What we know:
The structure holds 2 protein chains of 2 kinds. By secondary structure, chain A is mainly alpha-helical. Helices cover 71% and strands 0% of the residues of chain A. Chain A has helices at 3-6, 17-39, 71-107, 109-123, 127-138, 142-169, 172-180, 184-220, 232-238, 248-269, 273-276. In chain A, helix 2 packs across helix 10 (248-269). Mean pLDDT of chain A is 84; it is low at 1-11. Chain A contains 11 helices and no strands. Chain A has a single domain, classed as MetI-like fold. Chain A starts with a helix and ends with a helix. Chain B is α/β, with parallel strands linked by helices. Among the domains of chain B are: 3-102 and 177-182 and 189-259, P-loop containing nucleotide triphosphate hydrolases (Rossmann fold, 3-Layer(aba) Sandwich); 294-380 and 427-527, P-loop containing nucleotide triphosphate hydrolases (Rossmann fold). In chain B, the strands form 4 sheets. In chain B, strands 6-7-8-3-9-10 form a 6-stranded mixed β-sheet, sandwiched between helices. A 6-stranded mixed β-sheet of chain B has the order 16-17-18-13-19-20, with helices on both faces. A 4-stranded antiparallel β-sheet of chain B has the order 2-1-4-5, with helices on one face. In chain B, helix 15 packs across helix 16 (398-411). Chain B is globular and about 70 Å long. The termini of chain B are far apart. Residues 268-273 of chain B have low confidence and may be disordered. The A-B interface holds A 1-2, 4-6, 8-9, 171-173, 175-176, 178-182, 190-191, 194-195, 278 and B 333-335, 354, 357, 359, 362, 366-367, 369, 371, 374-381, 383-384, 387-389, 391-393, 419-420, 422, 438, 442. Chain B: Keywords: ATP-binding, Nucleotide-binding, Transport. Chain B: This is ABC transporter ATP-binding protein. Chain B: Residues 5-256, 279-526 form the ABC transporter domain. Chain B: One of its GO terms (molecular function) is ATP binding. Chain B: It is found in: Cell inner membrane.
Amino acid sequence: MSSTVSSARGLGLRINIVGAIGAAIILFWVAVAILAPLIAPYPVGKIVAFDYFQPMSSSFWMGTDYLGRDMLSRIMMGARYTVGISLAGVTLACFLGVTLGMIAAVVGGWFDLILSRFLDAFNSIPSLLFGLVIVAGVGSSLTVLIVTLALIYAPGSYRFARALAVNVNAMDFVTVARVRGEGIVYMVREEIFPNIIGPVLADFGLRFVFIVLLLSGLSFLGLGVQPPQADWGALVRENLDGLSYGAPAVVFPSLAIASLTISVNMLIDNLPYRIRDRGE
Amino acid sequence: MSNIVEIRNLRVKAKTDSGRVVEIIKGVDLEIAKGEVVALIGESGSGKTTIALTLLGHTRSGCSIASGSVTVDGRDTVAMSEAERRRFRGTTVAYVPQSAAAAFNPSKTIMDQVVEVARIHDLMPAAVARQKAVELFRALVLPDPETIGARYPHQVSGGQLQRLAAAMALIGDPQVMVFDEPTTALDVTTQIEVLRAFKAVLRDRGMAGIYVSHDLAVVAQIADRIVVLKDGEVQEVGTTEAVVNHPSHDYTRALISAFHPQAKSSPPSDAAAPAAPILQVKSLMAGYGAMGQDGLPKYVVLKDVDLTLERGRSLGIIGESGSGKSTLARAIAGLLPPAAGQIEMNGKALAGGVRQRSKEELRRLQIVFQLADTALNPNKPVGAILARPLFFYHAMRGAARAAEVDRLLDMVRLPKALKYRLPSELSGGQKQRVNFARALAAKPDLILCDEITSALDTVVAAAVLELLDELQRELGLTYMFISHDLSTVEAICDRVAVMYEGAKVEEMPTSRMKSGAEHPYSRLLISSVPQLDTGWLDGLDDDPLLRSAMADRRAAERWAVARRQRS
């Protein structure tokens, strides 16, 4: 029903320059992740140079790693893991957390109490430790990584969304919907969600950054993506010895992680105000 | 010079969210003589508070004084430095805010906060300041002046807190007092005492004051002169007597005629065939908190309430805040399942909670809330807000629904183009009309109106009431109209029920309200409503009934406070 009227509204979707730069960097990394097999100059696992930790050169733009593999190709392929796993993980975490949070706020009572205490208890497990235990127990695969990361970050997202939804739930328009006899799906989707979307998006961005860092941490400990494939965190770990030589092999994956996380924050902080301020 | 305040050609600019600069005060001239009280009245957005604040050299954030001068006691607050203004405030000009509850720090005792002005400006030793504060408490007719200062803000009533805020302002012996709607948030019965205390203090000390209000009747009691503002410009200036009795400007006339609502012309009642009751409430008990062993909740709000609403008529529910008016509406609407008693609609008992009621039962009974700001989803255009109940109750779709939305907007006298707007793009009156149209969309039999005009300006509220009356005649609606404003109830209701401490103490036809109230509380409530008559407040002393009721009330207040302290 709102589709007919939304076109008549002024959209006001202008974004400022900082946000645009953030968006551009994210799009760049997404494109790299999608196109990696096509544009990577060398196969990812192939040793292409006799010398390890080579400096930047015209044949190896980002130098080579500790085995003499091409760093540019490895970062491009790594983008698939880092961006893909993190995005899948954060989407799952926020979907679970926000949905449950809104339902808990609307339903209230015992449901809210039990769910909240359960997730609080869950939240009290240190995230890296939990990841270590799961991966050590079940083994590392893409699915396990994504689900583990999502489980670790869902309780926080739940808390956040529930706190926002409780405020909205106290508003008269929600009471009116309740007196009208609306079901819970409608209440959550139409009355609550549009009013918390702004802060939830900001939280999404923040959580994405946490997940990138946690994934990098897990890979750094050798529990993330398994060789010969590697995400950016694993690339930093593999080439840590090169730090003393000032090798680009350790600097570039670090820069890649930094650029992605910072640009996500730049975008979220500068979303068009029509989206950002909806909850207020 | 004889004028203590002189405002010359004042212009205040404000920057909107979109960065546009608009002039909100457009060249205002105003003077206040020594010992004179001048009232600024006008609807919200007319600039009355903005002007009052310039006396303190202050503007709200986003606003700035563009030009002009505000001379108080021979000094221009516009030209002062910030440090000079700080010394100036509290000693030459003092401010009494609208919400004293928000102005007091809940974690410090009242005395500490009242003498703070003296301490900041280093006016007198602490012991002297305390002594002076006690004298002020006495002058403001506060109970237990010696000890009330030792309490915390939550331990005194709203009316007392408002007087304490005045004491806080008075301690620095200012020459000019700025009152910013100090009684708007109070119940009528409390308002009287506060107004009297303010008036006595101002008169005894010969202080000048500026009194900001939107309530003409309140202003008529306390001000010597009235300045009527609209859109940042002075519309009319005159002595209170002249403005109230012989208004010359159109806007002032509209204000005054809004104050005298057309008494409801009841349809000729057929004594032979009494209308069938649409809603019957039988010995309803409801409250909050955990259920006790006696089957009643811990805090019982409604005690044994009986009500009957006849089809096509309206029943007003009046009473002060905390009397259980809104709880009654919530219980009837199913938001607060009653602990005991029955609610019957068209002779059939309604279940206690919303979830147990059928869709048809819910459709017949709609509720409209006080604050249209929070009652409309800020992210939905008006069209979508109105379309939802049409789909939900009547399964209307497509063109038929769009046509019905147009018809509803037309019914509440709003242009059709408004359906594309978001609630934030509407004025207060427009929002309340949309709020009401949403209830109409369900095609209900009964509408519960919870203080629906209280947040609106007088003139706007009068128009909304007129609309409600018209719709009732056209659609045969039944209203239950909750309000603390008696003139609103008088304008729209056939019968009035008076609530006091959760019980219905009296019910009577509206026409008998002024003359025939029997219960002492109803009489106190009804006689507390300010009249548009400059001598009304002073004349009250001659009313023995009101005086004894007031005395009872003070005793009750003291008792309540003592009980709170013990617990």
